[in-house]
């Protein structure tokens, strides 16, 4: 296990395996990853452990047969290089869906209703008391949400917006969806951005989606609209986002992920209309336990010669 994990997860793994838990929360270095491929039958890696082609290149036929990733997003692993080296890669879909959708709603409400800014004002001792025109934000109920990436998490966000906040739902993903509530399919990210009061990013990271939200999408959003990103930082062109916020091209942003995580541009930190969370999408004990138990199930299946339930390569 490449990070300390909840006790229940380690205990579940110990029922079937000899387990070593790496004691630090720092991402693995390339040398550690190469060594892990040689030393262990299975590795349970996570976000930040960049198993790229170079790491696999030196191990033609590694002892390790499975990377049972802790998390649904696996863009830090070169899955083709893993497959070529005979290493299965698995992830943890579903376990993360509701918690991540909840964080998207937290960000939408916080940025539109100026919650972060209000907290800072109060804690700074600058609150002069309620008055009718104090800190007016945007009303959320009834507005239009545009979901970029209508997969498991995108749909969970849309459901909350429709049933909880009476919002109109529009979306863009590779294929149209049939859903239990009305939702308009947009032909491009730009068309979606034009229609939305909130553009919420929920596509996977990786080469295909890098900077999918760039200057043209931000321009299409317009001065009244908010961007929320709970997906991966590099889906959004962060420099273009800073420009759009500074120039007032969009109204604000709620971010859980960053292009060069954990580095966050000072420009963003200085803006009142940016709500900035430290990648909290799945940060609840029961969710992290469910993710870990799912990883252990995948590990167990792969090492028993079965097809793991959540194989991605
Ligand atoms: P998913 O079910 O695979 O959904 C991904 C959606 O993105 C699908 O609807 C897919 O379209 C769409 N998509 C993929 N590539 C696209 C492209 N190039 N253009 C337009 N749409 C595209 O994945 P999920 O479980 O919802 O998770 C989504 C991502 O959220 C994960 O990969 C992960 O990176 C991120 N995440 C973040 C956190 C956090 O802590 N902030 C937590 C969990 C997950 P189709 O349906 O047409 O294939």
3D architecture notes:
This protein is an alpha/beta fold and 313 residues long. The protein folds into 2 domains: 108 residues, NAD(P)-binding Rossmann-like Domain (Rossmann fold), CATH 3.40.50; 180 residues, NAD(P)-binding Rossmann-like Domain (Rossmann fold), CATH 3.40.50. It is 37% helix and 11% strand. The protein has 12 helices and 10 strands. The longest helix has 19 residues. The chain starts with 6 loop residues before the first helix and ends in a 10-residue tail after the last helix. The site of NADP nicotinamide-adenine-dinucleotide phosphate (NAP) has 29 residues, from helix 7.
In short:
The chain folds into two domains: 7-95 and 284-302, NAD(P)-binding Rossmann-like Domain (Rossmann fold), CATH 3.40.50; 97-276, NAD(P)-binding Rossmann-like Domain (Rossmann fold, 3-Layer(aba) Sandwich), CATH 3.40.50.720.
